[in-house]
Write a structure and sequence with these properties.
about 240 residues; alpha/beta; 5-stranded parallel beta sheet; globular
Length: about 240
């Protein structure tokens, strides 16, 4: 009993440690300044889809040719080490404490880049079978610190996943599109006009595009996609 009473006090006195190198840190994202500086930031990217660019154009050729259903995609990092390590630890090794780190880092990027914040955040839902197996939805857990930091409510009940899809990892672009087709359902009256879809990682964008199409059919006018990391598309063509 005494240890439970003392725990909050000890937590406020003892220094936080970096989740990557175990060094003491003062940052609320639980990363030391050295590890924060070494993260794989996307420094030049398409202003619509956040696909990394190696030229000075503002919009990539694909978005000019065929604009996505969503209005913009915000992603601070490449899906490379150590971000891929953190995401894997969350999804497959129950490191839920790491969701605060990714959530707050994403929130910082959103605050820098988004002038018009959405009404609600919708975490990409998991199918009930996968949710039962994992025990939590990592997108929802990442959304929680963002919701608190930005003051935007989370809606995790309106959209559900009907189709038990295969994991998107390892599938090519067309396979991903077919795999996720008709996977989602809106199960209640939907009044929001400006929403953010939140996922941990976006690769081809098939998942967020499928849900964005459905939301547009329900009258949503503006859709932002927020994700912690963007995979380079050439890996999945």
């Amino acid at each position: 009993m005494l240890s439970k009473l003392l725990h909050p006090c000890l937590h406020s006195i003892l220094p936080l440690t970096c989740i990557l190198c175990d060094e003491a840190c003062k940052s609320d994202v639980n990363l030391c300044q050295t590890c924060i500086a070494d993260l794989p930031y996307i420094k030049q990217a398409c202003q619509i889809c956040s696909h990394p660019l190696n030229h000075n154009h503002l919009i990539c050729g694909e978005c000019l040719k065929s604009p996505p259903v969503y209005n913009c995609l915000i992603a601070p990092f490449y899906y490379q080490y150590p971000v891929d390590f953190i995401v894997t630890a969350i999804k497959f090794h129950d490191k839920l404490a790491y969701t605060k780190s990714l959530g707050l880092l994403l929130a910082q990027t959103i605050q820098q880049r988004v002038a018009n914040l959405p009404e609600i955040i919708i975490p990409i839902p998991l199918h009930p079978n996968r949710l039962k197996k994992r025990g939590y939805n990592q997108a929802l857990e990442i959304a929680r610190p963002i919701s608190r930091r930005l003051g935007i409510p989370i809606d995790y009940q309106s959209c559900i996943r009907l189709k038990a899809t295969l994991p998107q990892t390892g599938l090519k672009t067309r396979q991903r599109q077919q795999n996720i087709k008709n996977a989602f359902h809106i199960q209640r009256d939907f009044a929001a006009k400006h929403v953010a879809l939140l996922d941990d990682v976006v690769t081809t964008g098939s998942t967020v595009t499928e849900l964005a199409k459905l939301l547009k059919a329900y009258g949503v006018e503006s859709i932002q996609v927020w994700c912690c990391a963007r995979t380079i598309l050439t890996q999945c063509i």
